[in-house]
Amino acid sequence: MLDFHLGIGLGHAVSLPALAGLGLLVGIVAGMFGVGGGSLLTPLLLHVFKIPAAIAVGSGLSQKCGSSVVSFAKYRHLKRGDPRIDLLMMGGSLMGVDVGSRFLAYLSGRPDVLIAGHPLPLAIFVLDCLFILVLGCASVGMLVEARLAFRNPVSRGDKTIPGFLVTKVRIPPFVDLPEVQLYRVSVPLLAAIGLVLGAAEGVMGTGGGMLLMPVLLYGFGLSARNAAGTGNLLVLATVSLGAIEQALRGFVSLRLSMAILVGSSVGAQIGALITHRLSNRVLRLIFAVVLALTVVFICSDLLATILAPLHSAQ
Amino acid sequence: MNDLGKWIYAVACVLIPVCWGLLMVWLLNHFDGMQSRSDENGDTGISKEGRT
Fold first, then answer.
1. ipTM more than 0.90?
2. pLDDT, mean of residues A213-235
3. Is A110 helix (H, G, I), strand (E, B) or coil?
4. Is the Cβ pair A66, B21 closer than 8 Å?
5. Which residues of A touch B14 (CB under 8 A)?
6. Residue A212: how many CA atoms within 13 Å on its side-chain side?
7. 3-class DSSP state for residue A190?
8. In whole angstroms, what is the distance from residue A102 CA to residue A108 CA?
9. Higher-pLDDT residue of A207, A247
C-alpha cells in the first residue's frame, strides 16, 4: 500500500518506508562523520532498490540540495572555514557538474555492455567501478589515519600546516586566505580542483565532500574544523545546477528525493547524538568499516549479476 | 510535459528540498534556543523572573 511510483516513465514502484529507512541510514552516516552519506546513497539506490542509474544520481542531487543547505547554515553559524575558497572553486565546479551530468546522460543512452555474456547497463557498470575506486581509497585512507591517530593521539587543534598543494603548486595568480591561515594559494589550482569535484558530482551524484575533505586536509593542510566548514556553499551550488540539469532531462524523481531527505533529516540528528558518545579515533574506524562494507556489497552484487547466467546454464 | 512545465519541475526539484532544509535549520535553531533557555534557568522549569 505504501509503494509508490517514482514518476511518469521513471521505472518500477518502490516502498516509501524503505526509502525513508534508507534516508535515515544515510542521515545517520552523514550526521556521524560529516561526509559520506551521499556516497552510500547512490550505490544503495542502484543495488538495493534497482533504480536506473541516471534517476538515482539525479534524485540524489535533488536530495543533497536540502541537506547541503543545513550543512552550510550550520558551519556559517559556527564561523568555520572560508567561503572564499568555495567561490574560487565554484566556476570550475559548475562547469564540471555540467560535463559530468552530460557524460552520465550519454552513458544512460548507450546499449548494455556484455560482461561474461551477461548484459549490464553501461551507466551502472561505470558508476560501480567509480564507487569501488573512490570508496575503496577513502576506506583505506581512513584506516591508515585511524591507526596513526591511535599511535599519536595528540590533536593539532585549529592550526593550518600548509600542505603540498600550497607549497609546491606555484601557478599564478595567487590569493591569500587569512581566515584559514593560508597564503599565496594558486587560483588556477583551486579552479581545477573545483572542475574535478563538479564532474564527480555530475556523474556520481556525490563525491563533493568525500573527495574535497582529503584535498583540504592533506593537500592544503587545513585543520579538521576548517576543512569541515569549507566547501558547503560549493556543494550547494553544484548540486543545485546538477539537479536542474538532470530534472530537465527527466532524470529526477522529486518524490524519491523528498522521501530520502525526510528520513535523512531525522537520521542526521541521531548521527550527531551518537558522535557525542564516541571518540574521534573510533569514529574514523567505524567510517572506514562502513565504506569497506559498501565496497564489498557493490562488488558482491556486481559479481552475482555477472555470474547469474553461468549458474543457470549449469 | 512542455518546456515551461519542465523548467518549473526542475526548479521545484531544487527549491522544495532547499525549503525543507531551511525549515530544518529553523527548527534546530528553535530547539537550541529552548535548550539554552532551559539551561539558563537551571533546568528547574522556574523562570528567573519567577524566582525574584
1. no
2. 84
3. coil
4. yes
5. 62, 65, 240, 243-244, 247
6. 34
7. helix
8. 10
9. A247
Reading the block at residue A106, the C-alpha cell is 550519454
Measured in Å, how far apart are chain B's first and last C-alpha atoms? 66
Give the chain A residue whose CA is nearest to the CA of B3: A248
User: How many whole angstroms separate alpha carbon A49 and alpha carbon A27?
Assistant: 18
Give, in order, the Cα–Cα distances in Å from A310 to each of A111, A129, A313: 21, 22, 5
Confidence of residue A38 (pLDDT cuts 50, 70, 90): confident
Q: Which A positions 259-278 lie with beta carbon below 8 A of chain B?
A: 261-262, 265, 269
Burial A149-177, CB ≥16 within 10 A → b, else e: beeeeeeeeeebebbebbeeeeeeeeeeb
Residue indicated by cell numbers 569549507:
A230
CB contact (8 A) between residue A257 and residue B17: yes
A243 and B21 in contact by Cβ < 8 A? no
At A140-157, the pLDDT tens digits run 888 887 777 777 765 656
- CA-to-CA dists, residue A249 to A32, A33, A124, A125, A146, angstroms: 34, 33, 18, 21, 42
Residues 6+ positions from B46 with CB-CB distance below 8 Å: none
Given an 8 Å threshold on Cβ–Cβ distance, is B22 in contact with A69?
Answer: yes
Widest distance between CA atoms in chain B: 67
In the predicted model, what is the mean pLDDT of residues A244-257?
Answer: 92
